[in-house]
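In this supplementary section we document a worked example of the pipeline. Step one takes a protein sequence of length 131 as its only input; no multiple sequence alignment statistics are reported here. Step two produces a three-dimensional model, which step three serialises into structure tokens for compact storage. The input and output of this example are shown verbatim.
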Amino acid sequence: MVLGSGMSSAHAEVVALGLAQTRLGGWDLGGDGRPAHQLVVNWRPCIQCYGATMWSGVRSLVVAGEGPELEEISTFDEGLLGADWAEQFEARGIQVTTDVLRDEALEVFRAYRAAIDAGGVLVYNARSGTD
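The serialised model returned by step three reads:
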């Protein structure tokens, strides 16, 4: 949605969290009387999605993987995130599960990169494609 909307903050995680909050009528997805909401994503969060997820009230986060592969394959700039990112979620009561369908996620990233290399896809990053 970033490219289509022209909004750098329109990452899938932020949009999904916002839609859930709107539907439930409140910003705290983990508030009293609410079911424990879970966010499932294709890789560890970028720095923006990290904060948005932490503040959303979700009680668990499921990620396909973590590590440098996403940036290496896709050329995305995920921002500076500490090595203890998962521990910081856990310290705030947000359970983190990693490596769920990791290989499948990497295949999707490789297909995306192939489309970039073929000239059919724009790459979004904070530097507008420059180094």
